[in-house]
Amino acid sequence: DCINNYLNSQDMKNVLSPFLFCLPASLVGGTQNCYAGEEESTSPQKMNVVYIMTDDHSYQTISAYGGILAKLAPTPNLDRLAEKGMLFERAFVENSLSAPSRACLMTGLYSHQNGQRQLFGQIDTTKTFFSEILQQHGYQTAVVGKWHLQCEPKGFDYYEVLYGQGEYYNPEFKNKETNGKYVRRDGYATRLVTDYAIDFLEHRKSDTPFCLLVHHKAPHRNWMPEPKYLDLYEDVEFPYPDTFDDDYATRCRPAYEQEMQIDKDMTAVYDLKLNKLKDTAPYSKEWNVKGMQESIDRMKPEERLLWEKAYDRRLADFKSLQLTGNELKKWKYQAYMKDYLRCIKSIDDEVGRLVEYLKEHNLMENTVIVYTSDQGFYMGEHGWFDKRFMYEESLRTPLIIYYPGMKKGKKCSKLVQNIDYAPTILDIAGIDKPDYMSGESLIPLLKGNTPKNWRRDIYYHYYDYPAQHKVRRHDGVRDERYKLVHFYDAKNKTYDCNELYDLLKDPRELNNVYNESSYKEIQKRLQDRLDCYRNELKVDEH
Ligand code: SGN
Ligand code: CA
């Protein structure tokens, strides 16, 4: 059991843990003990859970996380949740992609254990979902919004789920009564998903606890804003991240060869919404024109008018400026940021509306509220959009947890991962984690009792190649300071390449120090950890 042995041998710090609460982070290995609270809830009543998960929401675009966008595009409702609860500064996914992340959530297992390694493909439905266990313990369970797994929602009393990735305007949903058929509904996805969440709450049995999963479609590509926000941020120039013009020097080939660059891979019609350019070379790439047209065709006439007005203005701007090179790349970034942040504004509003409902119905005292995303996202860092890589922006995900009765506004920098969510929710319900689950409950962290053997590093594995955006397969470990990444080719060994980062000295991950002599010991230690994970977890490709 090398993972746990390692944890125990590293535990000297925790022997002293009562004294460490007051020490600066630098003296306790670069992190603080997590301390949310005073007391355990004394209420005999079982806690409810509202778990809100957006799609592709970056921590960089939540003002509670600070950063260069916090003042320009604030998220007051998410910030209020963080003020009342705990904000996790080092929350990671295990595989930065939608379906795999959702499979980790449902099973508490790594991708190779739950079967959902790639976007397409099938989760192993013989695995128990935590929702089934909750049901067996008398919980009412519901999921609304994006489901994105190739199986029926398993273990849910109520569901109202989107077709595939889901559409922004007038999307199709199915529920238990539609006999497997998806039915088009009137409205904007972020609002509809909240409506269905509230609908479940309205009609639930009030004498049994509930667990409600609210899975938004937004802000997934192609970032289509709600009609009322089509003009929001129109005159703002958003700042550029430090790594906007990264040249990937020192990196392995995958960073050079991906297809997720704002300048090269963002399409004119689908992403930038330059609708009328569709017949103009070089913008006539079929799929992006067709995709946008289908989305527009779903709109009601009044929605379409507002849409075309907003994006005609953008098109006129684009045509008059005649930009090229870096100026064009910056213009594209501005267009991307505006649309993405407009979608975030709706998310923030709708989270506010749902929390308001809980308040009005006296549910804040016995409901845990989680806010997270299925993974992080690049907001122009390294010149990119999308996710997938093990670099921080897509490895990390936002995580805010409000737990009734706990001390407010705390931050936690322990290493947590999306395989922990299932054990956490079961723990909230007073159910012990089944032995087969790989994740750990976060409740001790929320209660201020960091377990003696809390993990000191995490294992990551991305499998979706060949696929859109052309990010190579890789796995790796990240501890509180260092990150080792190994890119590989599943079929032959031609692609083997490693990267090592010292996140304390190089938080932007621009300087790969793999094989540098001053990092020899560290490299060996991380390699041992990676080998340990691979062996112990029986990882079958790397
Ligand atoms: C779609 C998007 C991709 C995105 C994947 C995965 N293309 O295929 O840009 O990486 O989803 O996203 S699109 O042309 O269809 O918009 S995920 O969140 O589901 O993992
Ligand atoms: Ca996603």
Any overview of this molecule?
- The chain has 17 helices and 16 strands.
- It has 542 residues and is an alpha/beta fold.
- The strands form 3 sheets. Strands 7-6-5-4-8-1-9-10-2-11 form a 10-stranded mixed β-sheet, with helices on both faces. The chain has a 4-stranded antiparallel β-sheet with strand order 13-14-15-16, covered by helices on one side.
- The protein starts with a helix and ends in a 6-residue tail after the last helix.
- Bound molecules: 2-deoxy-6-O-sulfo-2-(sulfoamino)-alpha-D-glucopyranose (SGN) and calcium ion.
- The site of calcium ion (CA) has 6 residues, from loops.
Write the SSE topology.
Blueprint: H1 2-9, H2 12-15, H3 17-20, E1 48-54, H4 76-84, E2 86-88, E3 91-92, H5 98-107, H6 111-114, H7 130-136, E4 140-145, E5 158-162, E6 172-175, E7 183-184, H8 189-203, E8 210-215, H9 253-257, H10 262-265, H11 286-297, H12 301-321, H13 325-360, E9 367-373, H14 392-395, E10 399-402, E11 410-412, E12 416-417, H15 421-428, H16 443-447, E13 457-462, E14 474-479, E15 482-487, E16 497-502, H17 520-536
Parallel strand pairs: 1-8, 1-9, 2-11, 3-12, 4-5, 4-8
Antiparallel strand pairs: 2-10, 5-6, 6-7, 9-10, 13-14, 14-15, 15-16
Helix pairs in contact: 8-13
The structure holds 2-deoxy-6-O-sulfo-2-(sulfoamino)-alpha-D-glucopyranose and calcium ion.
